[in-house]
Amino acid sequence: MDRAAIIGVGMTKIEKRKISQTFADMAWEAVNKALTDAGMTLDDIDNVVTTSSDFWDGRTISCMAVGDASGAAHKNISCVEGDGTYGAFYGMTRALSGSYRTTLVTGHTKGSESVSSLITNAAFDPIYERSLGMDMITACAMQARSYMHRTKTTAEQLALVSVKNHGNALKNPLAQLPMKITVEDVLKSEMVADPLHKLDCSPVSDGCAAVIIAHESVAEKFRQKPVWVRGVSFCADSFFFGDRDLSRARSLAQAARKAYAMAGVHDPKKEIDVAEVSDAFTYQELLWLEEMGLADDAAAGKRLERGEFNLDGPLPVNASGGLLSGHPVIAAGLYSMAAVVRQIRGDAGGFQVQKAKTGLVQGVNGLGGQSHCVWILDKDK
Questions:
Q1: Rounded to whole angstroms, how far apart are CA atoms 379 and 271?
Q2: Which CATH architecture group holds 4-115+204-222?
Q3: Phi, psi dihedrals of residue 340, rounded to the nearest 5°
């Protein structure tokens, strides 16, 4: 089977408001950083995939806002709506198609220019559910309560996720919210939607990220030690919010099983060295870890209390600070991929973990984790 590798990554700093930068400005910065990282020029890129959203950008054909800045002139360009991990999946299939050898994938968001409650309300069914006025935060609050009820996870355990990830961000110069906080700080922060406090939720963010994916025949031509894609899969659950058991994530469990099988991973708790998972809300880190087999059923909160997901623990999770420390929504998955790539290469700087050979990246689409994309990346082919 042909292989693909990630040979370059580039990211802007995640900020609350990038007043001085347009979408194109952000893309230009991220793309040039990725090209420099890979030792490439635009002439070495065969095609471009942009990850964007007409809703978040406030315009139709949102990919056109970053096309030129992404070097798409005279190249094949496609757009993927949703999280950056899905854009990268499409980019990987192009690199493996035989028609292209190298694919540049970008993802951008300016949450500061959006009204997230209106945008995420539009994700609900327009006939039966949208008129209820719910959005992503209220939907995830329902899921958080359902998860806490099933697993007996406490508000204090959820708060530990926030403490850990904001603390990790202190070592990541690209993070938006590096903070030293306590469980008490989280529980005393404003209640946004019960049981989620303000510090249980990711912030409004602006940012852009880019990754370059190459076919194995050219991967080492540009970078001596590329990071290899060993396994990847995505899966979607029912669209209607009420048709799912919100305390579980069946689509994630299935996507993880398929990614593990492709990668030859038999015991993920022992074989995964580092993970970047979607923690838009604190409870999600624990729920997703459980469904991916990285924590025993209903035990993720207790493992967190023991420090097992800390930087110096057996499985560091969101060493970069995660989405709680900066969440450019559409670009989020590409930031996570870049963080794991840097971990495996050993150049993650202050948040580098020890012996990171195999890493996991997880991205999410849809309300309450309707769809999930799981990547297994490795130092070895």
A1: 13
A2: 3-Layer(aba) Sandwich (3.40)
A3: -70, -40
